[in-house]
Every structure is written in structure tokens, then in C-alpha cells.
Amino acid sequence: MQQETGTTTLERENAVEALRAGAQAPFDDARAMHPSVYTSPEILARERERIFAHEWICVGRASVVANPGDYLTCEIADQPIIVLRDLDGVLRALSNVCLHRMSVLLEGTGRSRSIVCPYHAWTYNLDGTLRAAPQMDHPSSFCREAYRLPELRVETWRGWIYVTLDPSRPPVAEHFAELDALIARYGMEDYVETFREEHVWDTNWKILAENFMESYHLPMLHHATVGPHSRIEEMECPPGRAAFNYHWITKDATLPIGNAHPDNRKLEGDWRRTVALLAIYPTQLVSLTPGYFWYLLLSPRGVGRVHMVFGGGLAPEFIRDPRGAEHMATLKSLLDAVNAEDRRGVEGVFRGVRAPLARPGHLSYLERPNYDFARYLAAKLTG
Ligand code: FES
Ligand SMILES: [Fe+2]
């Protein structure tokens, strides 16, 4: 355990105080968050204790673990986790730490009938019980039946998997009831993932989250890609809610998959060309269109690094349409280019917030979601 020095205590209090003060300002007078909110290890420690150890954290699409033996791995508040479908079809979340000398067990995604530790080959069943442990006839006190990987709460909502480390957190469907009412009409649970990648960028996780939640940066940062097609007047930024913030963009898509497919009977009127940009606290960012979706799931790796799952796919009508995959490939190339621009943007902000002369400026009315995010953080991290 690291000793808390006078400097770090002061730094934390400054960051916490700045967060509290910022959240008390009316939106009309709102500014960007104080630089220390992004750079302070103490804030990161508070985030781990007060946010990541308690919230429902989205770890991926349920389709990744559709079949018995399918698994994915993730990490929440330094806890490595395996989410798997066991051989009876039950979705489980298990600690991904071996019960022998505590090696991490699985990496990435895959399919397996058992979990074999890469260190000394202790082997677990998919319900977490220990099946075999080589050369453990001695000591006599070893009892294989006494070992079982700890299990965590896992639930699904609209095709997404959520895990929480908090045994008393209300069910995920209850937590997202308001969000569900807003976006149920899209039928997001039926969208089919067509790509899933993992990346690590050099920035604070909140800078990347904030980049996603405002479209104010589109004309400039993305001037070489989507910027020229982005019109401020098409964006609507209502006040956020307790569990998420959002904004809408209503437009005719440059690609056919951005609007509802002719076979889509669920969406009517303007909904057929409305995009929902969702920042689901703390770390799930979804761009949901009538024809496709793409998303980021963030996981901080220290103050200045963020791991992300970057994925997306198509609404079922476009999965059935022979040209859907072709359009998705075109979109994926565009998203890769846009992501490269965002990476430059958010890594640039992280370099900037460390500067002695960094000062937070006023927010635009198009950054209403950022204001709501700061208030969410303040509510969790202060007091
Ligand atoms: S640490 Fe897993 S078998 Fe030894
Ligand atoms: Fe962007």
C-alpha cells in the first residue's frame, strides 16, 4: 500500500474540490473539468473505489458468448474477469485469477470446455469448480473440492453484457429503465456484431469518454473525414439522466445503412433517420443508428492509458440484405479513419491537461453531455 504523502492529499483535495465546484455551476456558466481530474492518481483511486467497484460495467455483446464454452475476458477495478457460457448454457462471470499462485487464467476471447491455468495447469470446470490439479497428492491438507473460482454478478440488457463487483447493486434492467424507454424502438438487442477489436491509447479514460459525448469537434478534428457532412443544426443535446447522457443527430445518411432499411417496420417518421449517441455511465459509448451501431467500452489502465473494446455491426434488416456487409465494410474503413483522428485529438488533450498553464475554458451548448458527465463524476467522487 502506497503511503499517502502531503502532496498527493493536497492534489486529491484540489481535484475533488475543483470537481465539486465545477458541478455546482449552472450549465450557462459551465467549464471543462479541472486538469487534475484527468491527471491525479488519487482521483483514479477514488474512481476505482466509488465508481468501478459499484457500477454495472458493460463488457461486450452477448453474442460473443452465445455458445457453450464461449468466453471473453475483461478487467474491472483491477479484477480480471472471465465471462462465459457454461456447458448448461448458463451465463457466468468468474474471477480470472488462479486459486494456486494467483496467475491470470485466460486472455482474450475463445471457446473451451475447461479453464486451464497456463502456469501449473490447475484445471477448472466452467462453473468455477476445480477439476484437476497435477501433483497435488501432497500436502495431505489439499482438498480439491474446497476450491472454486469466485463468481460475480452478470446480467444482460438489450444484447449487452454487464458485470458488477457490487453484490447489492439493483438489477441492470432497473438501472437502465429510463434509457430503455428512450431507445427501445430501435430493437438494439437484435443488432448483429460484425467486428470487435481491442486497443490501448495514451489518454485518460474520461477524455476519451468526453470526446465521444460531444459532436462539437466533428467539423474541425474530423475535417478530413466526416466533418464536412456534420451540421450543428442537426444536433440536439437534452439534459442527461442519472445513468447516462445522450444527444441526437437527425439527418439523411451518406451511406444507406445510416437510415432505416425499407424492411424495417419498427421505426417511423424522423426515427428512420435519427442517430442516438449514448454515453452510458461510466464507460459504455454507443452510436446507435437505424441501420448500424458502433461502440467503445473503456477500461482505465492507469491515469494516462485506456484500454478499449471497439466494435459494431448491423441492424437485422441489413444483415439479411446482401449489400449490408459491403456497406459495413465501407463504414468500417471510415470509422478506422475517424478513430485515428479521435486518437490524435484525445492524446493531444491528455498532453495538454498536464501542462502548468492548462486552464479549463467555457463549454459550448453542444457540450451539454460533458457538463452532465462532470456532475455524475462529482456526485460519485465528492462528499
Ligand atoms: S498459478 Fe495457476 S496453476 Fe499455479
Ligand atoms: Fe470524434
Brief account:
This protein is α+β, with helices and mostly antiparallel strands. The protein has ten helices and 17 strands. The strands form three sheets. Strands 1-10-9-4-3-2-5 form a seven-stranded antiparallel beta sheet, with no helix packed on it. Strands 11-17-16-15-14-13-12 form a seven-stranded antiparallel beta sheet. A three-stranded antiparallel beta sheet has the order 6-7-8, with no helix packed on it.
Summarize the structure in words.
The chain starts with 5 loop residues before the first helix and ends with a helix. Helix 1 packs across helix 10. Helices cover 28% and strands 25% of the residues. The chain has 383 residues and is α+β, with helices and mostly antiparallel strands. The strands form three sheets. A seven-stranded antiparallel β-sheet has the order 1-10-9-4-3-2-5, with no helix packed on it. Strands 11-17-16-15-14-13-12 form a seven-stranded antiparallel β-sheet. Fe (ii) ion binds next to helix 9.
Write the layout of secondary structure elements.
Elements lengths: L5 H19 L10 H5 L1 H12 L4 E5 L8 E7 L2 E7 L5 E5 L13 E3 L3 E2 L6 E2 L5 E3 L18 E7 L2 E5 L7 H4 L1 H7 L8 E10 L3 H9 L4 H4 L13 E2 L7 E7 L23 E7 L3 E5 L3 E9 L5 E9 L1 H5 L3 H30 L14 H14 L2
Antiparallel strand pairs: 1-10, 2-3, 2-5, 3-4, 4-9, 6-7, 7-8, 9-10, 11-17, 12-13, 13-14, 14-15, 15-16, 16-17
Bound molecules: FE2/S2 (inorganic) cluster and fe (ii) ion.
- Helix segment count? 10
In what order do the strands lie side by side in the largest sheet? 1-10-9-4-3-2-5
End-to-end C-alpha gap: 23 Å
Q: What portion of the residues fall into strands of 2 or more residues? A: 15-25%
Content-based structural category:
alpha+beta
- The outline comes out as globular
Q: Residue share in helices? A: 25-40%
- Radius of gyration, taken over Cα atoms and rounded to an integer in Å: 22 Å
Can you write the helix and strand succession as a string? HHHEEEEEEEEEEHHEHHEEEEEEHHH
- Average of pLDDT: 94
The major beta sheet can be summarized as: 7 strands, antiparallel
